Every structure is written in C-alpha cells, then in structure tokens.
Amino acid sequence: MKILVCMKQVPQKDAPLKLNESGAWIREDVSYEVNEPDAYALEEALRQKEKHGGEVVVITSGPTRAGQVLREALAKGADRAIHLEDNAFVGLDAFNTARAFAEAIKDEKFDLIFTGLQSDDYGYAQTGVVLAELLGWPHATIIMQIEKTDGGIQVKRELEAGYFQFVDMPLPAVLTIQSGINKLRYATLIGIKQAKNKPLRKVTLAEVQAVLGPNLQKIEKLYVPQKTKNTEFLQGPAAEVAKQLVEKLRNEVRVL
Q: Which end of the chain, N or C, is less packed with Cβ atoms under 10 Å?
C-alpha cells in the first residue's frame, strides 16, 4: 500500500510560552517537536508497510525548521518526504492547509492518507477530514486498529464510554489516528544515516497559492490567565453566616 502521513511541528509540551507582539500567537523562539498524534500515525503507516509492503511518504508545511519533522520520519523508516516550505504556511487555517496538501499531492496516487487525530497546539482536528472532503474520499476518525481486507480495510474507531465501532471501508481513504494505537519506535543509527539520502521534495508557496483562499478561522487574541485570589470573611451568628455563604456560592461562585 502507498500511504501518505501528514505531520506537523508543534511547540514542546514543556516549553515556556510567550505571546508575540500581536498577541495572536506565541513567539517563534521556543523549542519544537513532532506533534504526538502524528507520531502515532507515522508508526501505524510503517507497520502497515511492514505487513503489506508499499511506500510511506510524509508531508508537512511550515518554515525551514519544520523539516526536522520529516528528517525524523525518514530516519524511522519513511521512504520519502514532501515539505511545503514557507513561513506563510504557519498562518493557514485547517481548510487552507488541507487545500495546500491536496494540491501538492495531486499527481500522486495514494491508497491511504493518515493524520494524527489533532494537533497539540491548535487542536482543531479538522485537517484530515477536510482533506478527505477535498479529495472526495471516505474517511474515519479516532482510529485504534486497521486491518486490510479483500475489499479494502476494516477500522476500529474509539467511541465514548468505552465503546468501539468497526467499519469496513473501501480504498482510497483518509484516517485520523488516535494516540496510543501502537508503541512508538526510535530511529536507529543506520536509519538516521540512510535518511540523508532519501528523496525530499520541496514545494513553494507559489506552487499552491492558486488554490488558497482567505482563512475561515482566525485567532484574534490570546492571553495568559492571571492568577488572583480574594479572601472574604463572613461575620455574625452561625445561621446568618451560613445563609450568606449559600447566597455567595449560588450567585457569585455559581457552584450551587
């Protein structure tokens, strides 16, 4: 099977975050890592390749620093990579990101496209399903297991309250992978050396600009919550204090 894995570079979970000058996002001078759900998507693609043969291709968008995501994927076993490289890709919403990906792979014929369930920074969980709609492919989300069948694939979806759903799907299809579907592997020393010689195609903003439009989602302002506390003493007879406390819990704190 020929599988495309969409990956993203996100700020590290323990990185100290500071807002940029516009207050619409964080500053660039933080440490970055592979989006964790995308790492599970890559691992599942590599396992499917090991079972059934084929090719695993990874794709990402963003500035030069985002190329580290692709290098790590190639070192783990991906066959080649596609980098939509430009700072402007950082500001695209999920719809335009999906448009850019669809345009970049229009000459490719994939059997499956994997994405992580959602990104650790924006958390929209939209890019995969929008990409499926643009391609006209069936899709399924929150995937916990994938089995190849004679007519396509059968997937196991995680639902609420401990329930699961099994769905038979034709190919090609788009799947968003749940974290924990498998156990992540480490890149070997040989894999790291081999990654340097694997194909990496770069796509400029100009090559996909024609399909992009205005962002349909936009972050206007972020703020860091300020910690405050206010201590108030209630005085008087016990019955009166209890009455005041109930009123405050009901009308001010709103926990009753």
A: C
